[in-house]
Amino acid sequence: MSDAQIKKILEDAKTIAVVGLASSPLRPSYGVSAYMQQQGYRIIPVNPTISEALGEKAYATLRDIPKDIKIDIVDVFRRPDAVPAIVDDVIELKLPVLWLQETVVHEEAAEKARKAGVFVVMDECILKDHRRLFR
């Protein structure tokens, strides 16, 4: 994706579901999500091992998020082997953007998502891109 496409996604988004968001401030997922929350985005934690993070109720899976919460970006902090199942949920729920954080690379799953009409950003840090594009 081009910088212009990424910037448009970040400009239009209001709510980010963060798959793998940890409740510990020491984890990268927490720091990145806290930064994005400070920039005005609503963060929805997706992690079956926590009840809340950053003041928001956590959900076990993307499918558990109430339908009245419109998810604009699914940001993934999970090992690459978890990505295919996440992609299946993203496609089924018709979520528009899948963002795979740095080192989260799964070409086959990303291609499946793209073929289903999902915008995919892979092996990129949403915080770093936001800082770079919105200085």
Give an overview of the whole structure.
The two termini are 20 Å apart. A five-stranded parallel beta sheet has the order 2-1-5-6-7, with helices on both faces. A two-stranded antiparallel ribbon has the order 3-4. It has a single domain (3-133), classed as NAD(P)-binding Rossmann-like Domain (Rossmann fold), CATH 3.40.50. 36% of the residues lie in helices and 19% in strands. The protein has 135 residues and is an alpha/beta fold. It is built from five helices and seven strands, in the order H-E-H-E-E-E-E-H-E-H-E-H.
Quickly describe the structure.
It is globular and about 35 Å long. It is 36% helix and 19% strand. With 135 residues, the chain is an alpha/beta fold.
Topology:
Layout: H1 3-12, E1 15-19, H2 28-38, E2 42-46, E3 52-53, E4 56-57, E5 73-76, H3 83-92, E6 97-100, H4 107-115, E7 119-122, H5 126-133
Averaged pLDDT, please? 97
**Helical proportion, percent range:** 25-40%
Q: Compute the number of helices.
A: 5
Count of structural domains = 1
Distance between the termini: 20 Å
Beta-strand residue percentage: 15-25%
- The CATH class designation is Alpha Beta
Find the CATH topology: Rossmann fold
How does CATH name the architecture? 3-Layer(aba) Sandwich
For the largest sheet, list the strands in their spatial order.
Answer: 2-1-5-6-7
Shape: globular
| Class by SSE composition | alpha/beta
What order do the SSEs take from the amino end to the carboxyl end, as H and E?
HEHEEEEHEHEH
The CATH homologous superfamily is termed NAD(P)-binding Rossmann-like Domain
* Gyration radius, rounded: 13 Å
Reported for the largest beta sheet, the result is: 5 strands, parallel
- Which residues sit in consecutive blocks of at least 5 with pLDDT less than 50? none
Q: Tally the beta strands.
A: 7
